[in-house]
Amino acid sequence: GQVFHLEDYKPTDFLIPETHLDFRLHPERTIVKSTLKIERREGVALDTPLILDGDELKLESICIDGVALGDNTYVVTPDRLEIRGLPEAETFTLEITTEINPTANRQLTGLYRSSNVYCTQCEAEGFRRITYYLDRPDLLSVYTVRVEAETSAAPLLLSNGNPGEKGTLDDGRHFAIWHDPHPKPAYLFALVAGDLGVITDTFTTASGRPVNLGIYVEHGKESRALYAMDALKRSMAWDEEKFGREYDLDVFNIVAVSDFNMGAMENKGLNVFNDKYVLAEPDTATDVDYAGIEAVIAHEYFHNWTGNRITCRDWFQLCLKEGLTVYRDHEFSADMRSRAVKRIAEVKGLKAHQFPEDAGPLAHPVRPRQFREINNFYTSTVYEKGSEVVRMIRTILGAETFRKGMDLYFERHDGDAATIEDFIKVFEDASGEDLSQFALWYDQAGTPNLAITYDYDQATKTFEIEIEQSLKPTPGQPSKKPMHIPIQFGLLGTKGREIRPRATKGGLVKDDVIHLRKRKERFTFSGITERPVPSLLRGFSAPVTMTSELTRSDLAFLARNDRDEVTRWQALTQLLNSKLTSNSKRVRGGKPATIESSSIRLLGELAFNNALDEAFRALCLNVPSESDIARELGANIDPEAILGSRDALILAVAEAHGEKFEQLYNELEHHGAFNPDAAGAGRRSLRNVLLDYLSVADGNPKRASKQFKQANNMTDRAAALNVLVQRFGTSTATNDALQAFEARYGNDALVMDKWFVVQAMQPGESALGKVNELMKHQLFSLDNPNRTRSLIGAFSSGNQTGFNRADGKGYQFFAETILTIDKKNAQLAARLLTAMRSWRSFEPERREHAREALASIASVAGLSTDVRDIVERTLA
Ligand code: HT7
Ligand code: ZN
């Protein structure tokens, strides 16, 4: 396949200032007439051809300035339209008619149908599946769209921008015209037509502009969209308050569809969502679902400025809109909920997804310099690490200067297709600082490690911190330069008192931030009257790993006393991880796990500390997962041994604190109405982690079974079902609960996804048989991405022991399934396949089986570009 390079960027020879689209919708034969005002750029030679992108298109007709083109003036294939012999005039009108089949489109990009609703997905390169066009993000155009369809099948006709004329036609058809005054790239185009229910509301912007809000969902599910509407209005107000950004159209519409490749899409004025991120009611959605809806609604809305008003020059700059918008949605959720708890959840996510990506064969810079398939770069590195880079800019410059830089970004680049260089420049101009070394964060892949040593000198009352940064080679980057790493810190004295140093020598320290800029640097603090315990990386101020000399008692001290909850949680995690990894090795060697009473005591203290947020206490009790432990081990992974080590810790903690856990579990029971807010969610998360410990201590499913039956909300019901399957998989209680769940929710796809997930995660060798059985279930289909992810995705990326079986059967099954999915939906297949990216970390037997499975995929002729790209990079 072709490889695209950042340095090959060239602006287009032609512009398209105006785009008129006319859709005659038909399930199998939709006619798209596109009328483009084309402008040749100054200096472009008259004989330069116009080359438009296409993908599986059928050309019906083509005219310029009203005259049909002769056969010898253009060359057309399904993927490309090249027009020669263009008029000499600087501007001319090109009319192209194509025919497409939305029903046959199972790739879910371009125009397709989801439960009979016509919808589009154009990012990144889907618009070319609708009509021939300059389908690239730096080509901005003003769109006017006419949509025509059969009235009974599609009473609703939506597109971007503001609504215009509409009317009825003969033959039971009708039409609507939409005009979007804001020039936009083709990837932000959207059209939706179908029969849907709606909830409406209004929002008045700070300058008094009324905006009509609509959320369109399947008929009968309207009440489930109320939380999303509330989240939307809060997002609109927050963006005004925190970033000075107002909405800029008369309407803002959201449509929820059930077949969608990703979470949602920020099309201008017409966001299209995976219904998983819109629909929620206490009886059907968990607290995690509610938080996800709030975050994704905000994320897509925030794109209106960071992505739409200012878009990307090319797809290498994807993090310009995605990293920044993730940063914005993280800040929004932090303001809506507990900041520390939100931050810990982000750190957990980053470590679980981005760190392994950065440590494996698919590692790439936040701004990649080359790709074969852009759809494979909507990654955790571009999104989450991209957000961390923005957060570090704020940490380095301070909140006020950061805001000045953002204001300058909006002022200077509104209406542009911008680059990362543009973004960095606004912060340099706002602060007067040189950020060229910092900019390496966009170019160097991999997670830096900080090796830290300390020295306290009682005689001189000085405390020294020496930090050495290192960054391992990643694909295409054998050697790396030192980066600018902001390390937020504090020094703790007796009882956790914060010690303020009198002065600092050596590397740069400003306020509470150590600025590490050399490969190895020393920071000396004077006026320190007792040996302090350093608290480093507060708020997880940089996406790095640390190896430090802190003793187990220093870590326990931090976990108990630091004022920063993120560091407390990190210290606890480090303490537990070191034991969990050493025990995994013991268990693999046939020895029993050993548990220290000090860790058990510490966990108890955190669990029972009423001064702490319940959600934080739950995070502490949720000991590192099997994949967290695997990542810590890094090599020679044996998932069975890891499970043994983890369960031994849980059992020891459960036995030690059983009685008090039970008391707390009972106290936390809530009898009033369900409230999805942070406080309620925190209480439930603590109670539900206690349910797991208590069930392990009880050794029987009674308590989980009772909770399952009595729960008045999905969070508690799903948590109970999870304990039943994880801990008592073969019991009658578990089977009864699974059957009851299916009987109650069999008609509700989003809820049934949870039923598939929980079973795909059942630990041990029996999981594969279960997954095979569930693939035959009447509700299972590889055509629906949510369902496929809930079974195949959960099994392959979430079930450590079930998927990574020693006999390699999990991998074999997965390889065959990926090949089947690839024929329907290549993007989905490629994304699922990334579950195998860490295959080299396993013990030799599993590693060899994984290699064989990957090789069996690579050997197939006719793979999609998407899967070929992932499988070849994974094997390289
Ligand atoms: N910007 C959106 C990305 C997206 C996407 C990309 C490729 C294929 C399908 C897709 N659906 C949505 C989502 C976002 O980051 O907000
Ligand atoms: Zn986004």
TrEMBL record:
CDD domains per the UniProt record, alphabetical: M1_APN
Domain Peptidase M1 alanyl aminopeptidase Ig-like fold: 446-547
Domain (Peptidase M1 alanyl aminopeptidase C-terminal) ranges: 553-876
Domain Peptidase M1 membrane alanine aminopeptidase: 227-438
Enzyme Commission number: 3.4.11.2
Keyword terms: Aminopeptidase, Hydrolase, Metal-binding, Metalloprotease, Protease, Zinc
Reaction catalyzed: Release of an N-terminal amino acid, Xaa-|-Yaa- from a peptide, amide or arylamide. Xaa is preferably Ala, but may be most amino acids including Pro (slow action). When a terminal hydrophobic residue is followed by a prolyl residue, the two may be released as an intact Xaa-Pro dipeptide
GO MF annotation list: alanyl aminopeptidase activity
Manganese as UniProt keyword: no
Domain of life of the source: Bacteria
Entry cofactors: Zn(2+)
Database matches in SUPFAM superfamilies: Leukotriene A4 hydrolase N-terminal domain, Metalloproteases ('zincins'), catalytic domain
Record domain Aminopeptidase N-like N-terminal: where: 87-188
InterPro entries for this protein: Aminopeptidase_N-like_N (IPR045357), Aminopeptidase_N-like_N_sf (IPR042097), PepN_Ig-like_sf (IPR038438), Peptidase_M1 (IPR001930), Peptidase_M1_dom (IPR014782), Peptidase_M1_pepN (IPR012779), Peptidase_M1_pepN_C (IPR024601), Peptidase_M1_pepN_C_sf (IPR037144)
Family: Belongs to the peptidase M1 family.
Protein name: Aminopeptidase N
Organism per entry: Phyllobacterium ifriqiyense
Organism placement in taxonomy: Bacteria, Pseudomonadati, Pseudomonadota, Alphaproteobacteria, Hyphomicrobiales
